[in-house]
Amino acid sequence: MSDKIRTRFAPSPTGFMHVGNLRTALYEYLIAKSLGGTFVLRIEDTDQERKVEGAVDIIYHTLKQAKLIHDEGPDIGGEYGPYVQSERKEMYMPYAKQLIENDKAYYCFCTKERLDSLRENSDDLGAGYDRHCRGLSKEEIQQQLDSGTPYVIRQKMPLEGTTTFEDAVFGTISVDNSELQDQILIKADGYPTYNFANVIDDHTMDITHVVRGSEYLSSTPKYNLLYESFGWEIPTYIHLPLIMGKNDDGSISKLSKRHGATSFEDLVSKGYLPEAIINYIALLGWAPKDNREIFTIEELIENFSIDGISKSPAVFDYDKLEWFNAEYIKAMTVEQFAETAMPYFKKAVTTKELDWIKVASILQQRTTVLSQIPEKIEFFETQPEYEKDLFVNKKSKTTLENSAPMLSAAINALDALPEWTHDSIHDCLIDLAKSLEVKNGTVMWPVRIAASGMTVTPGGAVEILDILGKEESMLRLKKGLDKLTENS
Ligand code: GLU
Questions:
Q1: pLDDT of the residue at 377
Q2: Ligand 1 atom closest to Cα of 11?
Q3: What does the pLDDT average to over 220-239?
Q4: How far, CA to CA in Å, does 335 sit from each of 253, 339, 432?
């Protein structure tokens, strides 16, 4: 075994990247990079029935977006390839045969019907396989093999004693061997099970640290018995705490769709930034030595340590994620924000070319999730129908009566402007308020309502007029004035 730290992310190609899987990938990456090691990507596709078209591409794409760059993997190769389990298929059988020779595994010829009826007739759901084929004689086995009876290969668990191992997070774990099932190692289709393949692959790929969800904790003794049978060194185990979601009644349960988006792709399409998601996920189960919260990926590498991982379940808090997202948005330059938000701008504004930097600057500080953007700026594309009551505002001291003369005066003053800039519009409206001896708001409110048709807008009257341009602004203001004066 090499001395170098080697970790692996070993997803099954299911078609989406659950945040739990992404956290595993992140921690594997951080452990490798913080210790000067190698981060390997391995695709675990031994369950051929669960294969999903395009799923491997989603894995590559997610890792790239999340900036978790692997050093070895199916797409880039490496010394330990192939990195896809189905391409390693031929490697597993010789190891299984070695176990059979050493009396640590056995052929099982039980039919599906027999196993089904075993399950149906058992009161104990966890009872599992009854070890029927464990005692077959050499002759019986040979006879079955010669006649081509389909078989699986099962691990022969010790019936007595205990198996104990150390987990870097959960501490010492001990199980009675009598509780361990004679699990299948090689399936009838010749493919290894995950339970077998992960051990063979982790060993033959020189993996030093195995990071995975705590749902694998109970299977780990079985893996360790395999390592022992082969005389191989057991890797360092780092099982991660469960990720829970908050239920409406305040209780928590395993994070699932009913709590909200649970995959990286869904979160990104809802308008969360990959960097913010990664930063938040880093803290789901790991705590830095100080209370710091914002970390770039490089800073995570610098600060990460295995002893900061907690075994208590972590609760995925969408509000907290939104807070992180808002912080990342605020920290961007306006140009970066405009570029990131462009797909959302274009969703709402399809026929106009606006000054997107100006649009970005009125939105940036008040956007927490990018998907909020289209509804906030739709009014630039098409002004919504609105009631004239919107002109009434107590704080700005506007009424249905005074809004019309204010708007009319604003139209005249703005129309006379030789140039249409933020500052010229601003000064024009402020001067107007002064000369009419009213509050600035008494002019600004009717102008903003007429320009947008909404009481809540990103940016004020000046910004909106500036972005709309003179022609469109004048049209909208006149329409607003008509609304106020018709029937009156
Ligand atoms: N293929 C397994 C999964 O996607 C990986 C478990 C492991 O990391 O060993 O859950």
A1: 98
A2: 4
A3: 97
A4: 41, 6, 33
